[in-house]
Design a protein that fits this description.
The complex is a heterodimer of chains A (167) and B (161). Chain A is an alpha+beta fold. In chain A, strand 3 and strand 4 form a beta hairpin. Chain A has 4 helices and 8 strands; from the N terminus they run αααβαβββββββ. Chain A starts with a helix and ends with a strand. Chain B is mainly β and 161 residues long. In chain B, 14% of the residues lie in helices and 53% in strands. In chain B, a hairpin with a 5-residue loop joins strand 2 and strand 3. The longest helix of chain B has 22 residues. The chains are: A alpha+beta (167), B mainly beta (161). At the A-B interface, strand 4 of A face strand 3, strand 4 and strand 8 of B.
């Protein structure tokens, strides 16, 4: 009887390969779930170290659309839903138009019915050797055309510059 | 004489064997797959012309920048030269009907020369699987610029083995 009791105690403390496999399986599931639902990002464990100013150009839009670029609005990359940042400045001007004149030469004029808007968005990300990574994971650089949305507008914007905030 | 009876497993085995034979036949007989053709490691330089770029993007690409394909993420090589030229516009003089060539205001063409280690496979050059040739459309990015253009020139500048 005493022997059986000792055996029972010994069994309770034994850690075998099956236990290890179960623990590994559970750990794998937990890590997979974390990746699947971007839990690291949701609890704020991200690599957004740098604050940058993204300068942009929106071309040839109506006055009402220019008005819909509202300072303080948060802008998102429509393609993937990634937060870009907050609109902190905008400067509308009459839209550039390139028109061929009677001599066949292309000249630059301004269309007073439409507007080009230059502006700046304050964003967070990581400046790496290979360039700026929005949110630490999405590459952005001047020349990129983004379809963006805020609560007031959806529009194409061309990135014209990215500089570290305060520089 | 014993009657041969095929069960479900036998059919699957036969199908697998037939598939393997068909695959081998395709590999050995297809002109698309060159099994025995030698490949060479070479250094190439190729030019990518980015057309009608806004003037304000001048100087955003630098020598020694590493270029990457924006779609496939393949490494395209190292920038060794950047040239700028006015974007030309072809118009028509309405009174004479003749063609007129003028500069596109505030726009330039940027020609980027990229050097890369490539594998020459008889018909083409491959950058670790990314085929490059004159005429190919290339969406490229460097640390400070994204655009797309066409490969306009490709030369082999060295043999590496």
């Amino acid at each position: 009887m005493a022997d059986n009791k000792n055996k029972g105690e010994k069994r309770r403390h034994r850690f075998n390969i099956v236990d290890l496999l179960i623990i590994l399986a559970l750990a794998t599931v937990a890590i997979s779930v974390a990746f699947r639902y971007n839990l690291a990002e949701k609890i704020g464990v991200t690599s957004e170290d740098d604050t940058v100013i993204i300068s942009f150009l929106v071309q040839d839009i109506k006055e009402t659309s220019a008005d819909a670029l509202v300072l303080g609005d948060m802008f998102y990359w429509e393609l993937n839903g990634i937060l870009i940042g907050e609109l902190i400045s905008k400067k509308p001007s009459f839209a550039e138009a390139f028109v061929e004149n009677d001599e066949g030469i292309l000249v630059k004029l301004y269309n007073e019915n439409n507007y080009d808007v230059r502006g700046e968005i304050k964003a967070k990300g990581k400046i790496k050797d290979e360039g700026f990574m929005l949110g630490g994971r999405q590459f952005l650089a001047p020349g990129k055309v983004l379809y963006v949305q805020s609560r007031n507008i959806m529009v194409n914007m061309t990135i014209t510059d990215i500089t570290r905030a305060g520089s | 004489m014993k009657k041969i009876r095929l069960n479900f497993i036998d059919i699957i085995i036969i199908l697998v064997i037939l598939t393997a034979i068909a695959l081998l036949a395709y590999i050995f007989l297809s002109s698309d797959i060159k099994l025995f053709e030698g490949s060479r490691k070479v250094t190439i330089e190729y030019k990518v012309e980015l057309r009608r770029v806004r003037e304000e993007f001048r100087d955003f690409i630098s020598i020694s920048d590493h270029a990457t394909d924006t779609v496939t993420q393949y490494a395209l090589g190292e920038v060794v030269d950047v040239e700028y030229a006015p974007t030309r516009y072809t118009g028509v003089n309405r009174s004479t009907g003749s063609l007129v060539f003028s500069d596109y205001p505030e726009h330039i063409n940027i020609t980027v020369t990229i050097r890369a280690e490539a594998t020459a496979n008889g018909d083409d050059y491959s950058l670790n699987g990314y085929k490059v040739a004159v005429g190919k459309q290339i969406s490229m990015r460097t640390p400070n610029f994204i655009n797309e253009g066409y490969c306009t020139q490709l030369t082999e500048v060295g043999v590496n083995g």
